[in-house]
Each structure stands twice: as structure tokens, then as C-alpha cells.
Amino acid sequence: MPLAYHIFVCNNQKTEVGSDVAKALKIALKKQGLKNFVTGGKKHQARVQTCNCLDVCKHCKKGPGAALVIYPEGTFYGKVKPADAAELVQEHIGAGRVVERLAL
Ligand code: FES
């Protein structure tokens, strides 16, 4: 199965926010039916993983949220909180639009 979207969430903060954001993203993908989906007659998948530092630390280590990157576009987001997950999934994955207020 081809991988359409791969989301890496920084998990290098002193708090659990990175893990919480990753969990919220996984829940939002399932709720919005975008974990496994079909476009152009092909099946695709969206996958979320935590990772170590993405080297954009000022946007998460010292702030209240986490940094993440979404491939294949390579779009970075910062200060992401679990409450932002549904919007990120709906806009970026579902509609193909960058969420400008969180974009780095
Ligand atoms: S601590 Fe998150 S990008 Fe470095």
C-alpha cells in the first residue's frame, strides 16, 4: 500500500505534548476517515510517528506545543497542541491546504 502522508511529531520536549499531539492526530485521522483513503483510484495511507528533535526547537521545546513535519510536502508546523489535530488533519490531509497559523 503506498504511503500518501507521513507525519513526524517531535517528542523531545520536557512535557508529554509531542506524544499527546501524535495521539490526537491518530484519533483525528480515524474519525475523519483519512487514515486509509482512496484518491485517483489508488489506496493511500496516512501514518503518524513520534520522533526525536526536528531541529526547530524554539517552536516546541520552549513553547506549549510540539513541532511536526508532514511529508511528502515537507511542511513544518510549530507550537501544535492536541486541540489543533482535527484542523490539521481536515485542512492539510483532507483538503490539501496548509494551516497557515501553525506553519513555520
Ligand atoms: S525539541 Fe522539538 S524540534 Fe527540537
UniProtKB/TrEMBL annotation:
SUPFAM superfamilies: Thioredoxin-like
The protein's name: (2Fe-2S) ferredoxin
Organism name: Hymenobacter daecheongensis DSM 21074
